Backbone:
């Protein structure tokens, strides 16, 4: 495997792909949204339970490629217990990380760093960001206004 | 397994020589020699087509049908000579019946709007198949919405073959038009199009054939087929993008209103009344893709020189070899196993998404398509979101098929 491919398909990615975490519907969710990648037809549903401005629980359903699945799985792990005001920052940090040019600096994001290799594969950026965009849609959904009291 | 050259017939094509005609095939991708197996999406262009485009713009460029000056005449002559070549290539039809379009999609939309829309009434049926490309689905959905006609869909069996019994059952007195692919872009199935056309004519309706995937791979003779309309794209037969042809029987085209209004498609205009130009110009409003059409003529000339029969026979061998190799790969499932197939191998690997297959193969220089191939209904029929698809053309080699399978082995090692 050439070095670029190894950057993309790290062991952690395979691990999350084969055993995705929080891969289920969340009955107590008060936010949810469906995302869709028109390029490949993949679909994902993100469920979030928010209380007191904090993400209490988050899960996803759907199956996709290794990158999309691992990204959704890792996202759910990264979000649990986060304050809503931090989520936006994390989204932007993640987005920057996977879209910045390969030689550009971008701040470390802990475990999510495993997806940094995506930026060498522009055709796969949408796979990595699908879950995150869907999360944003879920949190903004009008029928379930974000609770920030 | 490498192929055993002793058992295989020597191909009638000198593929090594043909490859030299296509400059792009010498590219390297990701540090590897390009193995281009995405010909169903678009084909590469021979030098003769590139030279024709260059020569046209460097020496002949002018508008067609509207200048008395020499250049305009030269451009017009070449533009019309290309049309004559195409007319001959698709079965010796009249040049009046060869309408330049921007591609298959616009040809189908033309027929949907100019032929079907004025004709369709509530209670009428439009029939398509379950394995159509979106561009042979959506134009019919639109015209059904506009007219109240119903869209009926012929199912396909597990091999990806049309269910002909169902097809016959669907045909009835209210069937007005049947729009059917000649070769499925997602599965490679060749439909029994001659038989279909016969059945539809017996039922008193007309047939539009989507020939996008057939034109460069199986011989097309619209006269023998007795097709009413036949649409294809130039870019899938080694011609420029943004070119295409709609063949239509003159008797039908004559009765159809123009699709678009503008210059070239009129004989005389007053504010009270406009008289339309004769065929085919009635359907060619505005300055066309002149260079593209002439380039398409050069592409057709190239294909004629190689020989459609030789191309089809060679591609059959490539496909048979690829299919044999696929059968030996554990965890590989071919989607589309029709008895009659052309140049397309659509497949799934257990536990691996098509997108990942595409990325890893690309890293090896092997270009395939991964996804739904603009044919989401047939993907759903097979219970998959998408497939990986290798599609062949006359310049592909058995070694390239081997490179594909080396890549597949690598994918499986990575994902095991
Ligand atoms: C079977 C089939 N029909 C129609 C089309 C549309 O062709 P174009 O995009 O050139 O108009 C394609 C191209 O992908 C095709 O494969």
Residues:
């Amino acid at each position: 495997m050439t070095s670029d491919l190894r950057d993309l398909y790290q062991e952690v990615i395979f691990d999350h792909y084969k055993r995705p975490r929080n891969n289920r519907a969340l009955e107590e969710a008060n936010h949810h949204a469906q995302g869709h990648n028109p390029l490949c037809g993949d679909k994902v549903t993100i469920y979030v339970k928010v209380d007191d401005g904090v993400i209490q629980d988050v899960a996803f359903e759907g199956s996709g490629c290794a990158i999309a699945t691992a990204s959704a799985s890792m996202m759910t792990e990264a979000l649990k217990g986060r304050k809503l005001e931090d989520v936006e920052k994390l989204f932007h940090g993640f987005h920057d990380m996977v879209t910045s040019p390969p030689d550009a600096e971008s701040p470390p994001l802990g475990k999510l760093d495993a997806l940094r290799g995506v930026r060498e594969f522009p055709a796969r950026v949408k796979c990595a960001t699908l879950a995150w965009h869907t999360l944003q849609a879920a949190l903004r959904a009008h029928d379930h206004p974000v609770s920030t009291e | 397994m490498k192929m055993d050259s002793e058992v295989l017939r020597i191909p009638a094509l000198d593929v090594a020589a043909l490859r030299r005609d296509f400059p792009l095939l010498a590219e390297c991708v990701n540090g590897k020699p390009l193995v281009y197996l995405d010909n169903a999406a678009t084909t590469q262009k021979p030098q003769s087509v590139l030279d024709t485009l260059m020569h046209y713009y460097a020496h002949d460029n002018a508008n067609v049908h509207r200048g008395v000056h020499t250049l305009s005449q030269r451009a017009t002559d070449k533009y019309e000579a290309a049309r004559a070549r195409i007319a001959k290539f698709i079965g010796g039809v009249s040049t009046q019946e060869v309408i330049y379009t921007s591609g298959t999609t616009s040809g189908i939309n033309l027929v949907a709007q100019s032929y079907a829309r004025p004709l369709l009434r509530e209670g009428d049926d439009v029939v398509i198949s379950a394995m159509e490309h979106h561009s042979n689905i959506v134009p019919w959905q639109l015209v059904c919405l506009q007219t109240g006609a119903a869209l009926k869909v012929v199912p396909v069996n597990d091999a990806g073959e049309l269910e002909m019994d169902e097809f016959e059952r669907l045909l009835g007195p209210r069937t007005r038009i049947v729009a059917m692919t000649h070769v499925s872009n997602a599965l490679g199935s060749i439909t029994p199009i001659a038989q279909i056309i016969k059945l539809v004519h017996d039922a008193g309706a007309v047939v539009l054939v989507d020939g996008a995937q057939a034109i460069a791979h199986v011989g097309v003779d619209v006269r023998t087929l007795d097709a009413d309309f036949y649409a294809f794209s130039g870019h899938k037969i080694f011609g420029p993008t943004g070119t295409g042809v709609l063949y239509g029987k003159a008797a039908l085209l004559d009765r159809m209103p123009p699709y678009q209004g503008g210059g070239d498609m009129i004989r005389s205009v007053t504010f009270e009344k406009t008289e339309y130009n004769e065929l085919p110009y009635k359907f060619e409003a505005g300055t066309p893709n002149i260079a593209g059409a002439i380039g398409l003529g050069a592409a057709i000339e190239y294909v004629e020189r190689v020989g459609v029969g030789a191309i089809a026979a060679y591609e059959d061998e490539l496909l048979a070899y690829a299919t044999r190799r696929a059968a030996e790969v554990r965890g590989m499932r071919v989607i589309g196993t029709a008895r009659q197939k052309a140049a397309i191998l659509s497949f799934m690997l257990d536990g691996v998404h098509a997108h990942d297959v595409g990325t890893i193969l690309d890293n090896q220089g092997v270009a395939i398509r991964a996804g739904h191939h603009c044919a989401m209904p047939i993907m759903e029929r097979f219970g998959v979101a998408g497939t990986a698809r290798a599609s062949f053309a006359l310049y592909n080699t058995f070694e390239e098929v081997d490179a594909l399978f080396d890549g597949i082995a690598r994918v499986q090692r990575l994902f095991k």
